[in-house]
Automatic annotation (TrEMBL):
Pfam families: WD40. The keyword Phosphoprotein applies. InterPro entries: Quinoprotein_ADH-like_sf, WD40/YVTN_repeat-like_dom_sf, WD40_repeat_CS, WD40_rpt, WDR72-like. The lineage of its organism: Eukaryota, Metazoa, Ecdysozoa, Arthropoda, Hexapoda. PANTHER family: RABCONNECTIN-3B, ISOFORM A. Gene3D superfamilies: YVTN repeat-like/Quinoprotein amine dehydrogenase. WD repeats lie at residues 462-509, 558-599. Keywords: Phosphoprotein, Repeat, WD repeat. This is WD repeat-containing protein 7. One of its GO terms (cellular component) is cytoplasm. It comes from Diploptera punctata.
Amino acid sequence: MSAGTNLVVPVVLWGKTAPTHCISCIFLSRDQRTLVTGCYDGQICLWQVDPDTLKMIPRCLLVGHTAPILCLSKASISLDNNFIVSSSESGEMCTWDLVDGKCREVVKLPYVHTAILAYHMCGCDDVRLFCNGYYAEVLVMDPFSLEIVFTLSSKVKPDWISALHVLRPAKRKDDVVLALTTTGIVKVWTLFGQESKSSEPFYEDESKQIRCLNALSMTCCAYNQRTVLIVCSKYWQIYDAGDFSVLCSVIPPRGERWLAGDFLAADRVVIWSDEGRGYLYKLPANSIADNKDFHSKSVESDNPFLYCLLAVPSDKPLSCPPAMRYHVVSRQGKMYKYLIRGDSEGCVLIWNIPEVTNSQLSQIKQEEFVKPPAMPPTVTTSLVKAWAAMKPPPVGILDQLDTNDQPGVKLTASIYLPQQSRLVVGREDGSIIIVPASQTVMLQLLHGKHQQYDDWPPHQLLLGHAGRVNCLLYPNHLHQRYEKSHLVSGGVDFAVCLWDLYSGTLLHRFCVHAGEITQLLVPPNTCSPRIQKCICSVASDHSVTLLGLAERKCVVLASRHLFPVVTIKWRPLDDFMIVGCSDGTVYVWQMETGHLDRVLHGISAEEVLYACDENIATSSTGDVGLANPAVHFFRGLRHRNLSAIRHATQRGLHQLQQLHHATNQDGSDHQKPRALPLMIQGLRTNPKDPESHILVFDIEALI
């Protein structure tokens, strides 16, 4: 990993507790060497798989998404091309390199995909991603640039596409896209490989209404292309691909709902349910394309026959439906069929689906059983099992404080002070520990005499919170205007505490919120002198405060928000603090007076937040303020804000001076900012997990 030209080496101290990994989607690479699991917290775990035994160990955790992972797909047909594409609930899409775990491309779209199918179209060098989701089109995307190549639109009753399948008919060079809308309309597009992002939309060639609402998956039989399996939560059905008439239908076992399914052969299917079980069915004669009775009227004595159950012995109920996927892979000239499951406990299970001959099926049919024969998974593993198997166990940053007879107190917040080389860690019991960072790292990672010392390195203990410490802030690290000795902490006890870092004393306890503190921030440097001495705190009761560290009192209490606060922006020259809530509402507060200036909704709310981002970008390009001073001057006139008018005038003069100064300088005195040899960053994959820590060593700075 390199930042700029510097060589940076990251090391993770995971701690003794495995991270929570509630699996939302799962994928196995074609070479069967990498299993990929996406989770509801937005992380992706890469597991190293032994193709012969299917034994696996977690290798890499990919962090980048901010919402649950909904889709995982391959990015290429080439076996050597180790890339996957992931998509999240917030519209983010990433292309990842499975070898080193790097994110090669990222994009945020206004579309949320619920399924991505990688398909090699005729006339294309590599696969295209066929995406469907919470929108009325089928998007066809490039997996490496993540650009939309073209869009398939609907002319007849456009609606969200709930299931999709792409196939190439035998002895033809075109591709057929089958899609099923949430309202049960089957749509067919024919692609010839010359499609591109043209102005004209590609409309469906034909569409037909069938009795099938909210389908979860649709698969055309790869063995004959004459039957289609459609799975809904309350039934799965086999359709004739020619006229889309129903051939057979099966409801789920009591208390279960179907999730999806696939063809094992022309006459067999595997269907899985939300309880994490797989059901293997033999199809009746009227649903098998090669049978003489195909498409005939169904006979009572010939129904789909359940001949095997893929289940976990004594499986406990799952807190949410598992992610399951069917994979067919070839190894050493032999075909293997796997059903893979990832569940809410972070467990990964693989069933190697057995090949059952027709004679064995007849034998099973003759043995009249109440329950079909059950088959346990071939492999079961989880992050918890992987952690337990490690000897010695993974180390945490404060393991020296743990006693052997009882588990350590959970670490809940941390902040690294690079100037003092100290690490401040907040814990579940309300205590705050301060340790010398380099000595602590040395104790965990390096062998030597120091490991025999009893109380080394020495630590400082701050006691003041009556419960979990949620967040920590060292204001001086963000701006020099704050006292070097001040440390601020926020806890579950509704309190914000101001500490003297050197003496370890509690200077003041702010009790102005009616909910636990979730965030601590620093206002920008261009605010008024009074606000510059404040810090901003956000709480779970949807309130925001500006707390004066010098005055030791609450300067502004903004507490009329009806929904949780998700973002805070600043317009210092207008004296505005802008609070964005989870329902999209924006509240504009005056900082000096504490008055609520206005409440904005919809597009005007978005525009105000966007304008704040624009201003930050403008200020980062060289000027200390925000946008054009003239704009702020007229805005100040409009709002009758004398402070803003005065400030804008001063900034206009300052900009002219800066411009004159810049033209008379050759710019040769710019110095490269010095990098820090060590940085420590807290990492938490789930709010309930204890913090792990990433140590980032800058090799050049160390030398």
